[in-house]
Amino acid sequence: MDGAAQNGDQLEKTLVRVSEKYEGRPGDIARGRELARDFLTRLRADRHVPVSDRTVDVVQLVVSELLTNACKYAPGPSLVDLVVAEDRVEVSVWDSDPVLPVPEASDPGRVGRHGLEIVMAVCETFEVRREPVGKRTTAAVPLAGEPGTTRGRTA
Which of 15, 74, 91, 147 could form a disulfide with 95 if both were Cys (CB 3.0 to 4.6 A apart)? Predict the structure, then answer.
């Protein structure tokens, strides 16, 4: 068995994740991006997981957009979870606001409010789900860095 196959087998057996709580303070979004960058860098270095540069960039962007929405629209804390599942990184942000976001129709003349459009364009999957308290938004980014067709779902 080659090294890549062994790493893949080990990765499947071990849940690889990181979580961090945020309070909606100045700098939280930058800290969220740093969490994502450090997590993916450690996956490369410590576990020899082939994480593309594009994936590092896209995951940071997704964390930034989803955490921005949580800080902007939800009172109280938020939680960022990053999980490696098979061949992708799942970015999940929980916040206390039960109102589900609705992506607006594409409008090149609109200033701002393009975050969900961007996330949906660069991710394989996108899902928003109500929780007992608040909601959880989850997006998946392929480790190899090649975007797939986004499959969105709101529950």
Answer: 74
Side-chain-side CA neighbours of 132 within 13 Å: the count stands at: 0
The number of folded domains in the chain is: 1
In a domain? residue 109? yes
End-to-end CA distance of the chain: 42
Domain that holds residue 53: 16-154
Is 46 part of any domain?
yes
Angstrom distances, CA of residue 12 to CA of 5, 24, 33: 11, 34, 25
Which residue, chain included where needed, has tokens 């940071």?
Answer: 60
What would the pLDDT profile of 126-143 be if each residue is shown by its tens digit?
Answer: 999 999 999 999 999 999
Indicate whether 8 belongs to any domain: no
pLDDT in tens, 50-106: 999 999 999 999 999 999 999 998 978 999 999 998 899 999 999 999 999 987 777
